[in-house]
Amino acid sequence: MDVLNDIFETIQLRGIFYYRTDFSGPWATTIPPLARAARFHYVAHGQCWCRVEGAQPLTLETGDFVLIPNGAQHVLADCPTEDAPPLEAVMEAVGYDGEALLSVGTGDPLAATRLVCGHLTFGAGADHPLLRALPTYIHVTDAARQRRPWFNQVLSMLVSNVFSGHPGSIAVVTRLSEVLFIEAIRSAGTEAPQLRAIIDGFSDERIGRAIALIHREPGKHWTVAMLAAEIGMSRTRFAVLFQEMIGVGPISYVIEWRLQKANAQLFTTCKSIPEIARGIGYNNPADFTRAFVQRFGQTPVEFRCKRHE
Known about the structure:
Shape: globular
Number of strands: 10
Distance between the termini: 35 Å
Order of helices and strands: HEEEEEEEHEEHEHHHHHHHHHHH
């Protein structure tokens, strides 16, 4: 089972919009904080300065890619500055209506910096140890990118479509941006040790198999002993290794994953609440409702109503 695919489908990772820019100095913009969001920036030409809130500034060169996965506020500029207008002001200035490509200064033959940027979101209440382990940013230099053929290929396809203007290019780019997000996470290294441990856990012959079992049958009444027996480990050793690699205990993972599956189904399907409850292992809908309220602070009915707001 492709666990990563199941995770990102369940937490409803979606590419929302993207934009390209041809900037001539001086220029600067502030991208505001936004919950349940991720942004990326790729320097197609030139260089720029990037300061993510709570982190040291970065200088991005041609070919560099940076993913800011936790919706943190950040500044993009041609040089270090404290005076950067908000992105909303830039969008208003070019008349962006939310229905097409946001293009800023495109076609300027004297432009010093050309960027391709994307914006993705997660579903309400989305959570997973993988998300909690994401660093402030993931910086993939041009040199590092060249050593990752699949990442490089996806990025090249995305950039080509951004500048093609062909019918359907926006749909292609938004889908590719989701793939690019996943590939950037997979490429994380020593700058994100907990994230790296989780990715390695998914690939581990024993822990990865246990996680796949949980994802394949989230409604099964798993115990630590059952999972350990399935993968041929002692109960104690399995629990310790799972905690070390994934950052939570096996049963905590099972419980949280069941509720994340319910969360997604409430928002994306018309299944009844008792049907959803049974599918994730709650034979009594009242028990499911109590667990859901404890985790998300509202009943399943209240949560589902948000779909129509």
